[in-house]
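# nightly structure sweep
# worker-07 picked up a monomer target from the shared queue
# config: single-sequence mode, recycle default, output format = structure tokens
# input follows
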Amino acid sequence: MRKLRLVLLVFFASVVQALACDVCKRNQPELLQDISHGTGPQADSEYYIIGGAILLVIFTLIYSVKFLIQPGERSPKHIKHKILKPSPEL
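# output follows
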């Protein structure tokens, strides 16, 4: 129970630190207020860069989970079988 409380305390402390302060809330564009510190994107093209990065991360996350759950390699000569099946020499 103590470990759970400690984990929750650290989690909530990090969330509170990540939220923007009052000065940053004023300087951020309306879309990003209360999310982060700093001035935020300076030009409209930066929103496209951020959107592209978000799409790339989501795409990578989806395929990472997909291939972790069901890798799809069925060949008996695949390198994973050298690790899964110990050689008779050992």
